[in-house]
Amino acid sequence: MPKFDRIIRLLGFAAAVGFALPAAAQVGVANPWVRGTVAGQKATGAFMQLKSATDTALVSAASPVAKIVEIHEMKMDAGVMKMRAVDGLSLPAGQTVELKPGGYHVMLMDLTQELRDGQSVPLTLTFADKAGKKSTVEVKATVKAPTAAGSPPKH
């Protein structure tokens, strides 16, 4: 029995360490949603609130419903609303950063299917800390009707 007890203790320690370490690197994701599409539409946006306990950055995203997924910024430039891809989005420690229509968002392009109200879209968000160490968070974003509040990202 001593060998069995030792194995149980080691498994308990591994579980404790395994659960403690990722929690420190994780970013909280609240209210993830994706704007629904209509037949033939090939792009849409994903929106959410992100909060990290430490300085980090959203550096990439992926989803099986889109062949291309990028982090985008929309902003006014000389009176014209412009959208562009960005390399990353800084998440200052302890601050909520909102991805929303008309601002920063995750752009889903070359969609593989129509996205209908109520569906769930899997997203993998990749973050990098100041040292460059990467971590991922899996998110299930609810599809909202194309008429959901805010301006849809346009290409």
Which structural category fits the helices and strands?
alpha+beta
- Helical stretch tally: 1
Low-confidence stretches: 13-25, 151-155
Helix content: 10-25%
Largest sheet: 10 strands, mixed
Which percent range describes the beta-strand content?
over 45%
Gap from first CA to last CA: 66 Å
Task: Report on this structure.
The chain is of the alpha+beta class. The protein is 15% helix and 51% strand. It has one helix and ten strands. It has one helix at residues 2-25, and strands spanning 27-35, 43-52, 56-62, 66-77, 80-85, 89-91, 96-99, 105-111, 120-129, 134-144. Strands 1, 2, 3, 4, 5, 6, 7, 8, 9 and 10 form a ten-stranded mixed sheet that branches. A hairpin with a 4-residue loop joins strand 9 (120-129) and strand 10 (134-144). The protein is globular and about 45 Å long. Residues 13-25 and 151-155 have low confidence and may be disordered.
Mind sketching the topology for me?
Elements: H1 2-25, E1 27-35, E2 43-52, E3 56-62, E4 66-77, E5 80-85, E6 89-91, E7 96-99, E8 105-111, E9 120-129, E10 134-144
Parallel strand pairs: 1-10
Antiparallel strand pairs: 1-2, 2-7, 2-8, 3-6, 3-9, 4-5, 4-8, 9-10
Short description:
With 155 residues, the chain is α+β, with helices and mostly antiparallel strands. The protein has 1 helix and 10 strands, in the order αββββββββββ.
